[in-house]
UniProtKB/TrEMBL annotation:
It is found in: Cell membrane; Membrane. This is ABC transporter permease. Keywords: Membrane, Transmembrane, Transmembrane helix, Transport. Its main location: membrane.
Length: 247
């Protein structure tokens, strides 16, 4: 019997606000802080690996199928399986969850970096070379800024996926908000839904806020994209006004 069905059969309310208020600064806050660390550390680590790896794959095209196959195979391995394997080497530490989740992000981030770099038009690269840009300066000043929207799209997917996957770590004792779910399911008497609902709501909110923040960062780092959209809208308004005047 699940915690939800047990609570329903006992007439237990879905949310007990008294429990939330008592644990807001304790168990809930601690689980939330742990969830933040376990969610974003693997993404940063994965991005640090994916950028040079993606650059190498974009430069040497024969390397890309091998890397893509390796990251896809890793992503196909169930998270709990990797956690259990890493426990033998890292014990019950944050590393047990951080490293597998960082490996999972590579299956999203490496293709995003490669696709982003491949989206840079050849004439843009040639123009940069004609202006005297050396390879490193061309990469940092021309290619990566153009590739940024594609890379950021992959980063958003990887971040939201990680926020969800962290909860699986609760099955080995390290799972941030997932620990609240385990608490609710193991509650004496057949289940207690309040910590489960609290965990689900906080995970959803964290994913939404993280996605919006990354979208904001993307907009701030790519002002030309906004200018392009604004110019397109202005052109459409002008064309509509011209058409209306002709009528």
């Amino acid at each position: 019997m699940t915690a939800l069905s047990a609570a329903a059969s006992q007439g237990e309310p879905l949310i007990r606000w008294d429990w939330v208020s008592r644990n807001l600064d304790g168990a809930i806050a601690e689980a939330f802080r742990e969830h933040l660390v376990l969610s974003f550390t693997p993404v940063l680590l994965g991005l640090a690996i994916a950028l040079p790896l993606g650059l190498a794959c974009a430069r040497w095209s024969r390397l890309y199928p091998v890397v893509l196959a390796a990251t896809s195979v890793l992503y196909a391995v169930p998270a709990i399986g990797l956690f259990v394997i890493f426990v033998a080497f890292t014990r019950l530490t944050y590393t047990t969850v951080v490293v597998p989740l960082a490996l999972y992000t590579l299956s999203v981030l490496v293709p995003s970096v490669v696709d982003g770099l491949r989206s840079v038009p050849d004439h843009v690269r040639q123009s940069a070379e004609a202006m005297g840009y050396r390879p490193l300066r061309r990469l940092l000043g021309v290619e990566l800024p153009i590739a940024l929207p594609v890379v950021m799209a992959g980063l958003r997917v990887a971040t939201v996926a990680n926020i969800s996957l962290v909860s699986v770590g609760a099955l080995i004792g390290i799972g941030g908000l997932g620990q609240l779910m385990v608490t609710g399911m193991k509650w004496p008497g057949g289940g207690f839904t309040t910590p489960i609902v609290v965990a689900i709501v906080l995970i959803i909110l964290l994913a939404l806020v993280a996605d919006l923040l990354l979208l904001l960062v993307q907009r701030l780092l790519t002002p030309w994209a906004r200018a392009g959209r604004g110019g397109g809208r202005a052109a459409r308004r002008a064309a509509a006004a011209k058409g209306g005047g002709a009528a």
